[in-house]
Design goal:
GO terms for molecular function: DNA binding. This is Transcriptional regulator with XRE-family HTH domain. The chain is of the alpha+beta class and 277 residues long. It has two domains: 87 residues, lambda repressor-like DNA-binding domains (434 Repressor (Amino-terminal Domain)); 166 residues, Beta-Lactamase, CATH 3.30.450. Helices cover 45% and strands 13% of the residues. Helix 2 crosses helix 4 and helix 11 crosses helix 12. The protein is elongated and about 75 Å long.
Length: 277
């Protein structure tokens, strides 16, 4: 039975060696026998050249001599060793670094997730990306919040709706808390996706055009809210309190599945009336 905790330095060394040794030199256009290869896979100097680091650096890493990988070097090694997404995440975990977001942010819903949003009916549900762009939704959440089909795609963004849409501005009973938490979440996303120019442009637009956003953004609060409660003033059924849950699929971590459940019997009754309309 294993009782020790993971020695991340030694595990990282062994992992890098194993990934290097499984590679075929032919896949890199390298001759298999410039000199006789005594071990399988690529040589350390070949990995060093592909990753843009020194041979001594690779040697010390593979010998577990206490080097700490930066996120940039971990990414370079992941590409040099042609790591699969799960292997890349494992490398970053061993290096005690957060993975860089190498993939482009999602702008459309992954089809299986879009189907799941529909299948979750009668629970109100929607799919977003890290920018709060609404990628997919079911009819229940459209009845509860807004018929997103009536909006141009550029306005299908929860933060834009909270700040700019006249029907949503007074929709939340505790509006400032909702906006404050949304901005804190957006700041965390801004740090996690520094190359996302669309997100940077969106923040610049809000900062320049909305005093409330500019004021709260300047406070530099950071918070990723995975669950909580919101109380809404619905024009047709009155006050509705919901508990929300945010789930991140392993296969599509840039997409966030949001579900709402009634927080009390009165709210459940209100949601039932909405769904029956």
């Amino acid at each position: 039975m294993m009782t020790r905790t993971v020695d991340s330095t030694q595990e990282l060394a062994a992992f890098l060696r194993s990934r290097r040794e499984r590679l075929d030199p032919h896949d890199f256009g390298l001759p298999s026998r410039r000199q006789a290869r005594r071990t399988p896979g690529l040589r350390r100097e070949e990995v060093a050249e592909l990753a843009g680091v020194s041979i001594d650096y690779i040697v010390r890493l593979e010998q577990g001599r206490g080097l700490r990988l930066s996120a940039n070097v971990a990414e370079a090694l992941a590409q040099a060793l042609r790591l699969a997404p799960n292997e890349r995440a494992h490398l970053f975990n061993l290096a005690q670094q957060r993975p860089l977001n190498a993939d482009k942010p999602a702008t459309t819903a992954a089809p299986p997730l879009a189907r799941l949003v529909t299948d979750l009916s009668p629970l109100p549900a929607m799919l977003m990306n890290h920018r709060f762009d609404i990628l997919s939704w079911n009819s229940e959440i459209a009845r509860l919040l807004l018929d997103f089909d009536t909006l141009p795609p550029a306005q299908r963004n929860l933060m834009w709706l909270c700040l700019m849409h006249p029907g949503i501005r007074e929709f939340y009973v505790d509006r400032e808390r909702v906006v404050r938490e949304g901005i804190a979440h957006l700041r965390a996303a801004w740090a996690a996706y520094p190359e996302d120019q669309a997100l940077t442009d969106l923040i610049a637009e809000f900062t320049a055009g909305n005093e409330e956003f500019a004021r709260l953004w300047a406070e530099r609060d950071v918070k990723v809210n995975g669950r909580g409660r919101k109380v809404m003033r619905h024009p047709d059924v009155g006050v509705v309190a919901v508990n929300f849950e945010v789930l991140m699929p392993l296969q599509d971590p840039d997409q966030q599945l949001v579900t709402f459940r009634a927080a009390d019997d009165e709210s459940q009754s209100a949601l039932d009336r909405l769904c029956a309309r």
